Amino acid sequence: MHVPDGFINAPVSVATGALAAAAVAVSLRGARRELAGTGQGGGTGAERTAPLAGLVAAFIFAVQMLNFPVAAGTSGHLLGGALAAILVGPYTGVLCVSVVLLMQGVLFADGGLTALGVNITDMAIVTTVVAYGLFRVLVKVLPRSRRSITVASFVSALVSVPAAAVAFTALYALGGTADVPIGKVFTAMVGVHVLIGIGEAAITALTVGAVIAVRPDLVHGARGLTAPLELRTSPLTGAAPAAAATTPAPAAAAAPRRSVRRVWLAGLAAALVCAGGISYYASASPDGLEKVAHDQGIDAKARDHATKDSPLADYSVKDITDPRLSGGLAGVIGVGATLAVGTGVFVVLRRRRNAADARPSADSAPAERA
């Protein structure tokens, strides 16, 4: 659903750019809390979000290369907002998808540069807000179990994609550059993206379910799923049962940290395999927006991408004639670049949060000694 240059006029593009910038600024502040484990839902595993957030961005980049057929002559791909929000939190999720969109636009000529605000608004903000909001509602009404997390992931991801299609339609109604009946755009966009949403839901549920199966503590949306351990005193000791049942176990608070290295390496390997190998077999059909744009005439005033001559344009390495090698190498480069940029952003945010938390303690130390 990457919107090219020329689909949306300048005033609306500028307005969505400002909205996207504001949302990213808010997300930077919110992500500091999520990465430090002090935001809503913080707790076990929160301090391990920083090294995984960059990996989530890289994984989304890789899986977005895997276009899957949804109808005759039409394909779809992962948007990733639901997946990112559930794995690492909504604020961090907005930043993950924004990093992916930035790398795609700058390096691979995918999604217009003047339309970057439109794409961040549509693919990062709308999908994340809709998906995570619905996810939290479902988690509250469903039984507290791992299966419920997976089911909630499926449903929220499914709804997030047509929601993004509705958002694009609204933006096109405000600033579309071609004279196309908005009703036709709405019907075509929502119709095809409901089908794409099924693929999005399957990928999201499978990924979240796989992580929960091995490390539920690393899934932001699953925090609090397991009740804390409690000490129970035997009735033979004569202690009151009610008091015994509510005594927390001191050892639970001091549970040893588990390394995330294996999960991180497995996720990186999966991303490299998807981008470097499986992407060669992805559907070559236009995605949902491209198909609707061609059929409805939305692309009448589309412009060439500003970085169309990039060495990595169209997800292929310039001057390498073998399509399998060219596409695979471009995918691997994209995963590496997205991982590096994403990890750098989240590590800096984590360190700033830790420094801010430590500063009041340091300032108050002399007063306490006095």
Fraction of residues in β-strands: under 5%
In one word, what is the shape? globular
List segments where confidence is low: pLDDT < 50 over at least 5 consecutive residues: 38-47, 227-231, 240-255
The biggest beta sheet, please? 2 strands, antiparallel
Oligomer: single chain
Which features would summarize this protein structure in a list?
single chain; mainly alpha; two-stranded antiparallel sheet; 4 strands; globular
Task: Characterise this structure.
By secondary structure, the chain is mostly helical. It has helices at 10-36, 49-64, 81-88, 90-108, 116-141, 146-175, 182-214, 241-245, 250-253, 261-276, 288-296, 323-369, and strands spanning 68-71, 74-76, 230-231, 247-248. The strands form 2 sheets. It has a two-stranded antiparallel sheet with strand order 1-2. Strands 3-4 form a two-stranded antiparallel sheet. Helix 1 packs across helix 12 (323-369), helix 7 (182-214) runs antiparallel to helix 11 (288-296) and helix 10 runs antiparallel to helix 12 (323-369). The protein is globular and about 55 Å long. It starts with 9 loop residues before the first helix and ends with a helix.
Quick synopsis:
The protein is mainly α and 370 residues long. It has twelve helices and four strands, in the order H-H-E-E-H-H-H-H-H-E-H-E-H-H-H-H. The strands form two sheets. The chain has a two-stranded antiparallel ribbon.
Could you outline the blueprint of secondary structure elements for this entry?
Elements: H1 10-36, H2 49-64, E1 68-71, E2 74-76, H3 81-88, H4 90-108, H5 116-141, H6 146-175, H7 182-214, E3 230-231, H8 241-245, E4 247-248, H9 250-253, H10 261-276, H11 288-296, H12 323-369
Helix pairs in contact: 1-4, 1-5, 1-12, 2-3, 2-4, 2-10, 2-12, 3-4, 3-5, 3-6, 3-7, 4-5, 4-12, 5-6, 6-7, 7-11, 10-12
